[in-house]
Amino acid sequence: MRKHMPPTRAPDGSRGTAMRHPRHKRKRPTADAATAAAAEHEVHPLADPARPIPNLACADRFEEYYRAQLGRLGVTGSEWTRFIKTLHAPLPVTFRVQPVGIGTLGDECRRSFDALQAAGGLPEVTPLPWCSSFAVEISKEALKTSHEPALAGLQTWLSKWGALGACTRQAIESMVPVALLKVEPDHVCLDMCASPGSKTTQAIEALYAGGAATGRGFMVANDASPTRCQMLLRRCAALGEMSERLLITCHPAQSLPWLPRLDASAEAEATAVGGEAGRYPAGCFDRIICDVPCSGDGTTRKNPSIWHRWSQEYALEMHPLQLQIAMRGLALLKVGGLLCYSTCSLNPLENEAVVAALLKRCAGAVEIVDCSRELPELHRAPGLTSWTVMDDALQEHESHAALQRSTALPAALKRRFVPSLWPPDPKEAKRKLHLDRCLRLLPHLANMGGFF
User: Do the record's keywords include Coiled coil (predicted)?
Assistant: First the structure.
């Protein structure tokens, strides 16, 4: 998203809390003991035998829900089978190497990997030049437990160069936000929910493009958890001298304070934006990574436990917090700056619904940037312009008003459905909001996890 004029209203800075478990207990269908016992031993036809699914009811609801949502993108028939089958398969091992020109360490790392490949015995290796990365067609579990010399050598290589900071284990889809933001040496950048830090290190490397840092750019990496900040600190410490351009903060992302400006024109710019100094302070970041907390249901390839605990109600819990964090990010963004909103969820309630609400609240102050020509090597699907709002029993609700009139749900659950969950008018969604410009990374299109 690009900010091209100041917002016309102050962002909602109220705090939000992400709940781990839904408060509303689902009503389970009645079944006799024999049927229930048989269901426990039933095997999912597409599940990896090494990663069985103990709760098929959740997996069935997952498939029914996304068959309805993604059918609007043409994911039906044989393509649906490919999609769901890929979601059950483990991810390949992927890693990012420091781009050429940053320093000698990255170049040595590349030469070392070339020698490892030349020795033979590795599975198929796919270079990904758009993100300075490689994909090895083997799962991390198989790599970790293998006793083959070539694979043991790869595991040793990843550990060695990862500790030196020249190589970072990172999923392909996770590299996309920073690649789209096109960070430059002069940019002041923010990662709002940074831990464990792979996107942060990717952005820092971009600040050093061409060798030693020549601009005034730096990176602020934030996380709300002190424990996760320690993890972030350890990950970034491996970058050595490049970490001198890094500031780590521990603060709720939805209420991050403004960064003090380094130039003398800050007060004048703030006055120009809001009509009086301090009312609407000028943005302070050129690039913002807004990878918000989410239900994570696009990560089944990495976290197969999602199959037996999936619930639509997780999206209801996440939506308000995601909207608060993204609104705060836009408030901190400079006019002309870029913010990338992303999740590892497939759910439109956490993705397009949040983006649509942002655009409506900002009333023309921001727009979705057309990235259709960016990263042409990356296979993707467009964003949804319409979707269905359902409860956890997969009952559709046409509108917020209709749901509030319904007697099928308890009042406590009704309160968790907010109006911004519902899609805008179809013509507005495509012609005015341009929700189709969003990028959906579907697993079967590029052998990756689900991402938005």
Answer: no
Give yes or no: residues 381 and 294 share one domain. yes
Residue pLDDT, tens place only, 86-106: 999 999 999 999 987 777 888
Residues 143 and 239 reside in one and the same domain: no
Give the DSSP H/E element, type plus range, for residue 140: helix 140-145
Range of the domain at 323: 2-16+174-387+423-446
> Which of 137, 169, 201 is the last residue before a domain boundary?
169
Tally of domains in the chain: 2
Residue 32 labeled ligand binder: no
Contacts of range 347-350, beta carbons closer than 8 Å, 24 or more positions apart = 347/69, 347/294, 347/295, 347/297, 347/312, 347/315, 348/69, 348/384, 348/387, 348/423, 349/315, 349/316, 349/319, 349/387, 349/389, 349/421, 350/294, 350/295, 350/315, 350/318, 350/319, 350/322, 350/452
- Reply yes or no on whether the pLDDT at 361 is more than 80: yes
Is it the case that residue 431 has pLDDT exceeding 90? no
- Predicted confidence at residue 102, as pLDDT, reads 78
Which positions are annotated as active-site residues? 344
Residue 307 reports pLDDT greater than 50: yes
Domain of 374: which CATH number?
A: 3.40.50.150
